[in-house]
Amino acid sequence: MLKEARDTIVSTRVSTFAQYNTARAVHSCPRKNWINRTLREELHIILAALKSRRLGLRTPIAHLVQRDPSAIA
Length: 73
Known about the structure:
Layout: H1 2-6, H2 12-27, H3 37-51, H4 61-64
């Protein structure tokens, strides 16, 4: 279905139907997803950033992460 969605020769209607079926298969999957400790910590950081009044909602995530530069251009 993904190949059909990317194919430019296939009509828009068929492409949309393929995207719909793919999204439906992914999001209506009854299997549980396990959240490990590190993912849970990352989700808490993101939630804290979203709830903070100091940060604007239009701030890119890359600007929130403190990094040491590995090179100087």
